[in-house]
Structure formats: C-alpha cells, structure tokens
C-alpha cells in the first residue's frame, strides 16, 4: 500500500527496531508531529507494537502527537531560564493559549513545546515563536507578544 | 555447579547462574517482591526485594542479582526492613485510600506488604493519582490510580500473550501504563484474556462486573434466570473458599447456584460435547472434501480476536463453530425454551466462566439473533465466589445436587475442555468414530497433555495420517502461526487456548493461585476422564437426544443457524 510515510520507511530496513528513533524523527520533521496513522504504519513496518512505539516516543520531549499550530512557541526550561523564573513563563503561556506543553490550541493558532536549553542563556528567560526569539520575557510582555501574533490574523 | 553462601549467619547452597531470590526461595527463605514475575526476565525496578550484602555494605536486589560464591547476606536486617518499609510508604503516598471499596480488598499485595512491614501512619504525603478510569472494554477495567507501575501486566501481555497492547507511557513521575495514544483499551488489540489481572498486585486491573443487573434480574419475577458453568469451574471454585486446590465441587456448586436463585442450572460441558460433534464433523468434512486446512479451534474468544486482528488472512481456517458458552446460550433460548414453553425474551441467561474474554464474546454482534442475546451476563469464577459469599451460602454444609436435564449431562471428554489439549483429545475421539464407525481403544493421548506451550501428535485413522498441534499462550500461537505461514510446519488441526495451561488458568480464575494449584486443577480433570465411563461426546445420551429431537445432523440446517458463526477482520491500534 502506498502511504504518505512510505518514502521515509523505505530508507530503513524492515523489522529493524533499532532504527525506531531516527524514523520517528524523520516523520516528525516531515509532518511536524507523529500521527496515529503514521505510528501504526511504523508499527507494521518494524513489527513493533504501537503501544511500545508510543511508550518510547513519550519518553522523549522532542516528539509531539498533535499537528503544529500556525505559531509554534518554544519555552526554554534550561538552567539559566529556570533561575530567572521560566516556570512562571511556562505557566503564563499555558494559561494564555489554553493548552499544555506538547499540545496545540483548538483553533490551530498556537502550539507549545518545552525545550531543555535553547542556547540563548544571555536572553533568559527566553521564548521562541516560529524561530524568532523573545528575550527577558515577563508575564506582561508575553501577553503583548501573543496578542501581536493574534492581531496579525 | 553449586557452592555455599552465607545468609542470615547460615550457610545455604546456591547454584551458579541463579538469582539470589531463587536461591533464597529454594532454601525456604522469603523476601517480598513486587515487580518480580516468575518466568520473565527481572527488571529490578521496585527494589522491594533488597537484601544487605555485608561484603560491599550495599543493598542489592535479590530478584535480579546472580549468586556469587562467598556472598554474605542479610535478608531482614534493620536497614533492609527500613528500606522496604520506605518503599511501601512511598507507594502509598499517591495511592487512593479506598481499600474498603476496592475489588482487591483482602487480596492485595500492597495491603499485605503494608501490613507485614507494620506501616501504621502516613509518614509521606504525596499528591494523589488522578487518572481516567477506563471502563471501555467489555472485559477489563483499568484504574490507573491504583497502579504501582510494577510492569507485570506489560510483561505478561507481551511475553505470554504476544499482544503488547499496553506499555509504559511518559517518563519519571508522569509514567503511566496505557495504550498507544492514551486511547481507551477497547480501541487496542487487547484480546480480553485477563492475564494482566492475574498478575496485577493491586486493584488497578479487574474484570467488568455485572452484579447490579444480575441481582435485579434474580429478583425480577418475570424473568427466568438460568445459569451455565464452564468445565473448569467445578475444579477451581473451591480455592475461592480456601479448600484444597483441585477439589471438584460440582454437586455443591449446583446446589449453591439454586440457592442463589438461579431457576435452572446447566452444564456448559454439555455444549462442549455439542461443540465436539459439530467441530469433529467439520474437520472430517474439511479433510475428506479438500477444504481449508489446517483448521483452528474457535472456542477461545481471546484467540479468535487475536486471529481477527493479527492474522485476518487466516480467518477462514478457524472452525465456524461457536464456543460452548454461545452454543449453550443458543440452545437455551431455542431448544430448551421451546421444550419448556418459556419465551426466549423472558430468559436471562448467565454463564460462569474461567475467563474475562467470554464477557467480550457474549456481547459480540454475531452472538445476537433478532435482538435476542444468547448469553446475557458472564461471571468469572471469582465473581461466582463473591456471589456465594454475598448470599451467605455455607458450602461445607449443603448437599450436592445434579444439574438440570436436558443440557446438564456431559461426557468426560467435554470436561477435558478445561485444560490445554482437551478439545483436541475430545475431538479426536469423536472424529475417529465418525470416520471409522468404531470407538478409539487408546483414549488418552499423553503427548497432548501437560503444560508445554506447544505440543504435537500424529494419528492414524484408517488410511489417514492426521497431524495435530496444541498451543497455549498466544505468544506461542504467534510462533506456530508464523512457522505455518512460512511453510515450515504443516498440520490438519490445531487447538489454541489463549491462556497458559488453558481455561484452568484463565483470566477469571482465583487470583494468587500457585503453579501447583493450577496443576491440581488439571489433574482433577484427567482423573474425571479416567474414572468415568462415558468418555466421548457422541456417547452422551443427551447429545444423541438433542440431535434426534431438534438439531437433526451435525452441520445440518439447524446447526448452521444456531451453532455456527463467522469472523471478521478487525482494525485496531496494533
Ligand atoms: S487482557 Fe490480555 S491482551 Fe488485554 S491487556 Fe490484559 S494481558 Fe493484554
Ligand atoms: S496495572 Fe497492575 S500489574 Fe500493571 S503496572 Fe500497574 S500495578 Fe503493575
Ligand atoms: S522484586 Fe526485585 S526489584 Fe522488584
């Protein structure tokens, strides 16, 4: 059966479960997330139960199971950001867009991801939206930043 | 090779390659375990089994550490006990405090440990688990709040059942056991076998109960409430009442069921005989007319669902016979209803099964005819035990009774259905008669008895050589089916039972039974077969009667309508 992810699977030998993570990474790069259908495809291809694939994938923060929003927000939870209050930042973003890390808002506008360290410690606490960095954010500035994106619509 | 090591200031004999736990147990020393699962590789994750190694001054896990010559261990030093107690206190810190409402009250390993280690106060306060209670399945209820993440269910489902529909999800304190995409278990490939319930130390896994409806029906004067029980129930129910494993309490059980209020008591073993009549006829037909071979048995609903999911291309290899439970359901609401002038819609038909998958089977669409379900409620052996307790019946002080007739008389061949290999032995006895017109002289087929995961035999009937295989544990079934698909193995007839050992060790049986208890159940079934004189299904006079009065011939028109079914491919989260 010709499937969307067949091209990716073809690059790896069938039934070799050690390639699971690279396969999942490729699918996520391509689709932006791991869909139920693609996990079942991988499960058939590797002859590995989908529950185990899901178990492995949820072990790592990098995998998501819902499509990315139009604006993808990354909140840094690295050490520097942590020291400067990134817990509150995450909390504020979650409250503002109404979803938890790893999820996408119902209108498809925002998706949220927590990253370990984004590599911009000098800007802490920092968030990135579609790759654009917003430095030294506060609860007030987060509201402003997100409203700006909303107003662009 | 064996050597000595010191435990609690005494020398004990240890064998090279074994774990400390095995050496201790062999020498009569007990240490508590939680994540340990016999027959499975240790994970060493709960640390309940720690012992103190005096040479290294470390606490090491007995279940996963191999013995070494010269080891000096303490199994119950203050440090060890303290550590075990802390583990239990930590497990309790996020556990719901509702033991009194829990299905596993008084039969819970966490309760036992808490008692043994003398936990008397809540020292560690944690945030209580709040997860979604999964009641989506017809058979299994999952209450993740009570899960202590021992992983035993995951390993059984994977290693014994070859299903693997559940696994650890997330990481660290967020970890839960669940189905892919956190879906409900009914969307998964779960075959409802209940083996996960059998190994769960707590109330996190249990069977779906129909008690309130059943009790309402028992008290509804318009309903004729009838009951049937599977071949293995009479040899396993005793353990729910602390009687010796393997005690056959068939007569007492009949009496108890009537005392509870069941108007008529039927023996599913009668329809096990009926299944054999139909299935043996089907086998002979397939062999002699070039039909699809090998033929697989279809009386185990766990195996049937497994085949529908993983091997849908082989569905036409499954016998079209319904299981004994469903055949009984069908004949109660047709033959018996006609005979006793009872309206089928007023019959509430209950079955007592060693199995949780039977709950699923009873509600399959194919098992309903014109809006009338064949079987209305399924109880496990455990639930019957609870029901007997609830009605205050003292099994020690009631007189044995026989089951109703018709639908209550059985051969000893039907009784063998309760153990792996039994369907095969029974089918061969009747197939032999159908082909040759004679009776088998050597009834017993030793090669098909016992607990091996996969057994085979070759039989000669006239000029036919028939090869058969018997498999228990679906992981073994998967192996066998794969080798058949590759052309490495060829058979005419294959019996598959999902549970290890067959129904005597089904997912609805007594929780916490030892291996020797299960063996005792099997032995009793074999003893019954040795002792009794009607050893073949076709010799059962009630079977002869139902064909004469009602069904006509095996595979005849009526049989097809009532006793046979079909299967379909299932799309599930694999
Ligand atoms: S009932 Fe059987 S198949 Fe389903 S989760 Fe439990 S062990 Fe696995
Ligand atoms: S559900 Fe039961 S068997 Fe499974 S991990 Fe939790 S406590 Fe252990
Ligand atoms: S029983 Fe040994 S670590 Fe769990």
Key features of this structure:
heterodimer; A: about 150 residues; Glutaredoxin; 4-stranded mixed β-sheet; 4 strands; about 45% helix; B: about 575 residues; alpha/beta; Ubiquitin-like (UB roll); Alpha-Beta Plaits; Fe-only Hydrogenase (Larger Subunit), Chain L, domain 3; 3 domains; 4-stranded parallel β-sheet; globular; binds iron/sulfur cluster; binds FE2/S2 (inorganic) cluster
Explain this structure to me?
- The complex is a heterodimer of chains A (153) and B (574).
- Chain A has 153 residues and is α+β, with helices and mostly antiparallel strands.
- Chain A has two domains: 54 residues, no CATH class; 80 residues, Glutaredoxin (3-Layer(aba) Sandwich), CATH 3.40.30.10.
- Chain A is built from seven helices and four strands, in the order ααααβααβββα.
- In chain A, strands 2-1-3-4 form a four-stranded mixed beta sheet, with helices on one face.
- Chain A is elongated.
- The model of chain A has no long low-confidence stretch (mean pLDDT 93).
- With 574 residues, chain B is α/β, with parallel strands linked by helices.
- Helix content of chain B is 34%, strand content 15%.
- Chain B contains 19 helices and 19 strands.
- In chain B, strand 3 and strand 4 form a beta hairpin.
- In chain B, helix 9 crosses helix 11 and helix 9 packs across helix 15.
- The two termini of chain B are 44 Å apart.
- Classes of the chains: A alpha+beta (153), B alpha/beta (574).
- The interface between A and B is medium-sized, with 15 and 18 residues.
- Bound molecules: iron/sulfur cluster (SF4) (2 copies) and FE2/S2 (inorganic) cluster.
- The site of one iron/sulfur cluster (SF4) has 14 residues of chain B, from helix 4.
Blueprint (SSEs and pairs):
The complex is a heterodimer of chains A (153) and B (574).
Chain A lengths: L5 H5 L9 H12 L4 H11 L3 H10 L11 E6 L2 H5 L2 H12 L12 E6 L11 E3 L2 E3 L4 H13 L2
Parallel strand pairs in A: 1-2
Antiparallel strand pairs in A: 1-3, 3-4
Chain B lengths: L1 E6 L2 E6 L4 H7 L23 E4 L4 E4 L10 E3 L3 H16 L15 H8 L23 E3 L9 H9 L6 E3 L6 E3 L16 H5 L5 E3 L3 H8 L5 E6 L3 H4 L13 H11 L3 E4 H21 L6 E2 L4 H10 L13 H17 L6 E7 L3 H6 L5 E2 L2 E2 L3 E4 H10 L21 H4 L6 H15 L17 E8 L2 E9 L1 H12 L7 E5 L17 H17 L9 H11 L5 H7 L11
Parallel strand pairs in B: 1-5, 10-11, 10-13, 12-19, 13-16, 18-19
Antiparallel strand pairs in B: 1-2, 3-4, 3-5, 6-9, 7-8, 14-15, 17-18
Helix pairs in contact in B: 9-11, 9-15
The complex binds iron/sulfur cluster (2 copies) and FE2/S2 (inorganic) cluster.
């Amino acid at each position: 059966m010709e499937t969307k992810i067949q091209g990716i699977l073809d690059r790896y030998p069938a039934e070799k479960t050690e390639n699971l993570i690279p396969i999942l990474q490729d699918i996520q790069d391509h689709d932006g997330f791991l869909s139920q259908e693609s996990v079942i495809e991988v499960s058939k291809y590797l002859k590995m139960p989908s529950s185990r694939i899901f178990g492995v994938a949820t072990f790592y923060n990098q995998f998501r199971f819902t499509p990315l929003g139009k604006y993808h927000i990354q909140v840094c939870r690295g050490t520097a950001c942590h020291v400067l209050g990134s817990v509150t930042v995450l909390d504020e973003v979650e409250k503002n867009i109404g979803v938890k890390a790893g999820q996408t808002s119902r209108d498809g506008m925002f998706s949220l991801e927590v990253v370990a360290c984004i590599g911009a410690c000098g800007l802490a606490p920092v968030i990135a939206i579609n790759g654009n960095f917003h430095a030294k954010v506060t609860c007030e500035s987060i509201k402003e930043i997100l409203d700006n994106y909303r107003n662009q619509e | 090779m064996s050597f000595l090591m010191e435990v609690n200031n005494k020398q004990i004999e240890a064998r090279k390659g074994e774990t400390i736990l095995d050496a201790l147990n062999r020498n009569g020393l007990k240490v508590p375990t939680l994540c340990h699962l016999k027959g499975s590789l240790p994970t060493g994750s709960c640390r309940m089994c720690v012992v103190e190694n005096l040479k290294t001054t470390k606490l090491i896990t007995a279940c996963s550490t191999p013995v070494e010559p010269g080891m000096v261990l303490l199994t119950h030093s203050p440090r060890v006990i303290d550590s075990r107690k802390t583990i239990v206190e930590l497990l309790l810190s996020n556990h719901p405090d509702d033991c009194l409402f829990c299905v596993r009250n008084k039969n819970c390993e966490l309760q036992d440990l808490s008692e043994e280690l003398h936990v008397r106060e809540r020292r560690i306060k944690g945030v209580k688990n709040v997860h979604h209670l999964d009641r989506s399945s017809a058979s299994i209820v999952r209450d993740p709040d009570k899960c202590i993440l021992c992983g035993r269910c995951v390993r059984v489902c994977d290693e014994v059942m070859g299903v693997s529909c559940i696994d650890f999800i997330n990481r660290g304190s967020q970890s839960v056991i669940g189905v892919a995409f956190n879906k409900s278990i009914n969307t998964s490939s779960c075959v409802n076998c209940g083996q996960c319930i059998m190994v769960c130390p707590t109330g996190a896994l249990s069977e779906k109960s129909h008690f309130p409806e059943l009790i309402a029906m028992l008290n509804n004067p318009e309903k004729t409430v009838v009951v049937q029980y599977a071949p293995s129930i009479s040899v396993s129910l005793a353990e729910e009442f602390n009687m010796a494993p393997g005690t056959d309490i068939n007569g007492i059980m009949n009496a108890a069921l009537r005392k509870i209020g069941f108007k008529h008591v039927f023996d599913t073993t009668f329809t096990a005989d009926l299944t054999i009549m139909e299935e043996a006829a089907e086998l002979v037909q397939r062999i002699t007319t070039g039909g699809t071979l090998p033929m697989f048995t279809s009386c185990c609903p766990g195996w049937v669902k497994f085949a529908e999911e993983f091997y849908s291309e082989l569905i036409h290899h499954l016998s079209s016979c319904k299981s004994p439970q469903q055949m009984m359901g069908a004949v109660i609401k047709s033959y018996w209803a006609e005979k006793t002038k009872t309206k089928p819609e007023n019959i509430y038909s209950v079955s007592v099964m060693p199995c949780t998958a039977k709950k699923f089977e009873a509600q399959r669409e194919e098992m309903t005819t014109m809006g009338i379900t064949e079987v209305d409620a399924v109880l496990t052996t455990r639930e019957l035990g609870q029901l007997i307790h609830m009605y205050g019946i003292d099994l020690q002080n009631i007189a044995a009774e026989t089951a109703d007739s018709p639908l209550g008389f059985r051969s000893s061949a039907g009784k063998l259905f309760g153990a792996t290999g039994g369907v095969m032995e029974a089918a061969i006895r009747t197939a032999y008669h159908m082909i040759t017109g004679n009776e088998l002289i050597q009834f017993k087929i030793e090669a098909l008895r016992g607990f091996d995961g996969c057994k085979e035999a070759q039989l000669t009937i006239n000029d036919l050589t028939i090869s058969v295989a018997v498999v228990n544990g679906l992981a073994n079934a998967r192996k066998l089916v794969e080798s058949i698909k590759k052309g490495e193995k060829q058979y005419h007839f294959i019996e598959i039972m999902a549970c290890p050992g067959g129904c005597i060790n089904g997912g609805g049986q007594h929780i916490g039974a030892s291996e020797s208890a299960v063996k005792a159940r099997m032995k009793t079934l074999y003893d019954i077969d040795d002792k009794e004189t009607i050893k073949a299904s076709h010799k059962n006079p009630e079977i002869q009667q139902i064909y004469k009065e009602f069904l006509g011939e095996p595979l005849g028109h009526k049989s097809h309508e009532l006793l046979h079914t079909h299967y379909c491919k299932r799309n599930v989260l694999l």
